[in-house]
């Protein structure tokens, strides 16, 4: 595995950014616990991955506010951007004081549950294209995501995807409770053959995956983002990767990384 390099200061800043939405009580709890370099723990857990693929991982324990990040480079979103597109659509509908119409609901369900590409293209138009998605992301707290007209080539980081997950699954969000419930519900109902990815890290999952062969190299981007419950803890996990010779190889790397991230958070909780 080829990690994205960064300095210790950068790593600490990234980890802090991922957990920035933690509650004051969670922050107080953290101050009483032994200080653990979670980024280093995560890097160690990911060390067994084979060379050749490029991976970045972010994880946040929503209960304690503890988080870890491995790698801070930008990756193609592939189809994980569909969560972002639907969040932007829901924000727009909220602003207009309305519910999604019939066509939007049909597109949204197909886009998240079946990863339908035509639906994503139509809904990206509905939110104002690349500019509209970037504007929505600013409101959702994303800082390192840059939308693209070819939506699968949107650039993002693992830490920013956890920020998006916080907007979907956390109460401190521009999205209303109804919008969050709707989007999370669709992520809980992806089709069976798309249930791989961060689901390997636990139960009670809600996720969206992305996979895409790059025409320039023939190598695969494989990504997974979502919520899982592991050891009684609710975790938000994002795994971004590229450079795989097959989709299946990418899925194996993503699932190993997700399990490793959950294991690190579990070990830290047990030691505390």
Would you mind describing this structure in some detail?
- With 272 residues, the chain is an alpha+beta fold.
- The protein has one domain: 3-Layer(aba) Sandwich (Beta-lactamase), CATH 3.40.710.
- Helix content is 46%, strand content 18%.
- It has ten helices and seven strands.
- Strands 2-1-7-6-5 form a five-stranded antiparallel beta sheet, sandwiched between helices. Strands 3-4 form a two-stranded antiparallel ribbon.
- Helix 3 (38-46) crosses helix 10.
Task: List the keywords.
alpha+beta, Beta-lactamase, disordered N terminus
Short description:
The chain has 272 residues and is of the alpha+beta class. Helices cover 46% and strands 18% of the residues.
